[in-house]
Design goal:
InterPro entries: NirD (IPR017881), Rieske-like_NirD (IPR012748), Rieske_2Fe-2S (IPR017941), Rieske_2Fe-2S_sf (IPR036922). 4% of the residues lie in helices and 35% in strands. By secondary structure, it is mainly β. It is globular.
């Protein structure tokens, strides 16, 4: 169990971390602060329509969001997968059956017949997830 402690004066003067927002069927939705994301680890977000998104940030600061449901098992687990890259394509590997999903396109790198949804990402209303495109 943790207990709250008073913040140090230095901690209160730091600029707040920008909010990560994803574009869902009902518009832009704030998911978490960018500082809450750790490179190589995902965060699951429940969307207003009941679906889930898996949100990631890479070591370069680029953010990605894909559907959290593994199409091979139906389990909401992609946010718990391992991230990596293959031929300069960032991916997350499902923690269950290890299929890899491209974080930019949602395409399954191991079975082209399967894919997951991809969501646009922005920081506090700014350009998409640190991308230049």
């Amino acid at each position: 169990m943790t207990t709250a402690t008073a913040a140090s004066p230095a901690a209160t003067t730091a600029a707040p971390s920008p909010l990560v927002e994803i574009l869902g069927p009902e518009g832009w939705l704030a998911v978490c602060a960018l500082g809450d994301l750790i490179p190589g680890r995902g965060v699951a977000a429940l969307l207003p329509d009941g679906s889930q998104a898996a949100v990631f940030v890479d070591r370069g600061g680029r953010t990605y969001a894909i559907g959290n449901q593994d199409p091979f098992t139906g389990a909401q687990v992609l946010s718990r997968g391992l991230t990596g890259s293959a031929a300069d394509r960032p991916f997350v590997a499902s923690p269950l059956l290890k299929q890899r999903f491209d974080l930019e396109t949602g395409e399954c790198l191991d079975d082209p017949s399967a894919s997951v949804p991809v969501y646009r990402v922005r920081m506090d209303g700014a350009a998409d997830g640190g991308r230049d495109d």
